[in-house]
Amino acid sequence: MTALGRPEGTVRPRAALHTDAPSIDLSGAWRFRLSPTADAGDFWAADFDDSAWDTLPVPSSWPMHGYGRPAYTNITYPFPLDPPHVPTENPTGDHRRVVDVPAGWAGERVLLRFEGVDSLGRIWVNGAEVGFTQGSRLTHEFDVTAHLRPGESNVVAVRVHQWSAGSYLEDQDMWWLPGIFRGVTLEVRPAGGIDDVFVHAAFDGGRGTLRVDAPAGARLSVPGLGLRDAAVNTDHLLDGVAPWTPETPTLYDATVSTDAETVSLRIGFRTVAVVDGILTANGRRIFFRGVNRHEFHPDLGRVVPLEVVRAELALMKAHHVNAIRTSHYPPHAALLDLCDELGFWVIVENDYETHGFEQNGWRNNPTDDPRWTDALVDRMRRTVERDKNHPCVVMWSLGNEAGVGRNLASMATVAREVDPDRPLHYEGDRSCAHTDVHSRMYATPDEVAEIGAAAGGLPFVLCEYAHAMGNGPGLLTTYRELFERYPRCQGGFVWEWLDHGIRRGNQFAYGGDFGEPVHDGNFVIDGLVFPDRTPSPGLAEVGAVFAPVRLVADGDTLTVRNGYDHRDLTGVTLEWTLAVDGAPVATGTEPAPPLAPGESAALSLPNGAVAPPGAGEAWLTVTALAGGLRVGAGQLRLREAAPRPRRSGRRFAGDTLGPAVFRAGELVALGGLALRGPRLDLWRAPIDNDIFGRDPVAERWRAAGLHRLTHRVVSVASGEGLTVTSRVAPAGSDRAFEATYTWTADDDAVTLALHVEPTGDWDVPLPRAGVALAIPGRCGRVEWFGGGPGEAYVDSDTAALVGRYESTVDALQTPYVRPQENGNRTKVRRAVLTDPAGAGLELLGHPTFELTARRWSTAELTAARHTDDLVPGRDIHLHLDAGHHGLGTAACGPPPAPEAWLKAEPFDLVITFRAL
Ligand code: IPT
């Protein structure tokens, strides 16, 4: 039987090791030539003249350097489904470089190692073909001893084809980006050296069991545990061992040596096991607060510099992410060293996805075709062998979205053969025949609850949930509650960490921007961080929801809960601030009570943390700090605000009511300030969660005409104040909203009391419920007392704390790669927008309103495709809302929860306006 899609000529896969054996890093400038088809002619001879070729850095994704173009598809293959064939149009990059090999390497066995070549690389050394890689994100090593000439210049030539049979196995949702995108090295394998090592380090109640599989005769040392030149291939029982967990990532430096070679290891002791249907580490339930992580960089493609990786892991830690699924292929090997060190659980996924076969009824799916068995087994074996020594690796995953079939069993078998200790994951097979955990993606809260409540069964994880596309995700607290209620619902992995936008000028491109004939638009922009890895508001929400120290108001006390899985609260400091109307009046610091994991206690409030006599809304804010990080925050309202007086007393005369001037029933000036509005406004620029998914609410909004409401002033009645009624309705429909604007004023300010009644059968939720008005663009400074500092919406407001904040209209914007509704500040009591001289507008809520301010209209925001389409106009457009429809996560998952649904029901909004 033909074996399709596998590499040839490689040596046996083995662990990634840190060794003192000599090696040469082949990163740097290579000669490069791109051809449109696979057969570009001979180029591998050592004396081939490549002087006319360009140079290209290795590692690189060549389309990011001006050769060809990136292309994005999610599920659809960008070539006909004609396995194993690929089109004649097969961009092919020929790479050459000269390497001086020291004379001292004579007589040594030498391997040439490739850590990532997308998708197939044919390799020649000094003109002799040594084999080819296939499996883009997998390590391949070739024995080049016979072809190398130590003491001379040697030529390494690599022909990389963008498409290969292997491409059928690599239909992951990401940019198609060919190239040698990870390291290339020449490595000496000394005679009598250590080719491979397998660390088994178990932990049980203070005791570690260590066995290191290595060549017979090698010696093991773990100085921190008193082991010196101990035997390999045998169990060592060790007392006084500290366990490895993501919260306590204790590593022990170790070496395995022979006379010829020393390998350095960092050993973490932990036992991962399924016990009574629960996935446990060191006997305790695991709770995944995870993210899916792709490897992508907005300028470099699949090449992600190590310092960028380190910074992104620090950002994850700061937001209490404790787990990573390497969607959907093994990561750069260095990631796992960092995850050991910093503390993350990692599900390492095989480089395997065949999702596009689903669109063809899964016909000819490689998962169920014996011609592909060898390739799939090879991929799984390479995955497990390379990364088997990492304490962070909690499970292996057979791949993603590859349907079902006999090759799942083959992959599971080889994974278990190589590593019998780690559980297996695969989401695509509902029968779970080959896995140790039950995994689903995007299951609704109801489904999760049903799974949680069912008796027996496997541990349950959501390998993907909370699709973070555009503005969102909502619903994180709903899922957290389920993970906390049902022991077998062991958390999940947010889809996904990063927006894969490609930098173009000062904005980011997405699918279709490179003229791809088939593409999936902005589905590649669905991360918690923007393409340049700056956090989006979704990450702030994740940080607040995942925070291990929970401070929750319960009646008139604040409860602290230790949400760590493996450590108590020793060393956690609580910083408290008492503020009246947002102005701090007292602060202090206390140690957190030393609660064990899962325990809670009412916080005894420190002396002084009581509202001072007088009026004003009083809040106690408590922030938990550990190791320089914020690990929790919560608030308790100590005194409610007294109701604000509505302004009244002035009569409407001429055009004026107190300081306000009206024309045709609409406010046009207040004091010296020109304005237009406020008018009823129900539209928002649809977010991705409104637009995509099974039953996109934005389509229903458009069908209902909510984006094209017209206004008819029905009556203007004056007297004590001014009452304007208006009928607001879309063309072609007899459904409407009746808006009654009741204005009252004193000498200083006007108060609007708006009442809105839908008439007719509005069977759709509303995007927003409020008013819009325009004020002069110079009033760009913003100050508010309310939720902040960041953007928040009704089902994504965990990170927002009530306080006093300052910003600018420009800084209130969230630059979602595809522009959409953004920037809302929630539960605002008071806001002030001023010009540099301090003149402007004060807004006072009765009691609160939602605040959005931007330099473009909602229509412009709705029409924009990229951030550069948004051009500041003359005015500031203010939106003051009684409510918003929730964010949900419907782009791929459930819509907002019923309580976050903005029903078309009567509503009121009361706000006082005062010119400053
Ligand atoms: C799911 C994929 O596993 C993931 O790679 C990504 O494409 C995500 O969707 C969407 O952004 S598959 C989906 C059809 C449930």
From TrEMBL:
SMART domains in the record: Bgal_small_N
EC number: 3.2.1.23
Source domain of life: Bacteria
Leading EC class: hydrolase
Entry keyword set: Glycosidase, Hydrolase
Keyword Hydrolase: yes
Catalytic activity from the UniProt record: Hydrolysis of terminal non-reducing beta-D-galactose residues in beta-D-galactosides
Domain Beta galactosidase small chain/: start-end pairs: 656-914
Pfam families: Bgal_small_N (PF02929), Glyco_hydro_2_C (PF02836), Glyco_hydro_2_N (PF02837), LacZ_4 (PF16353)
Family membership: Belongs to the glycosyl hydrolase 2 family.
Record's protein name: Beta-galactosidase
Organism the protein comes from: Asanoa iriomotensis
Lineage: Bacteria, Bacillati, Actinomycetota, Actinomycetes, Micromonosporales
Gene field: lacZ
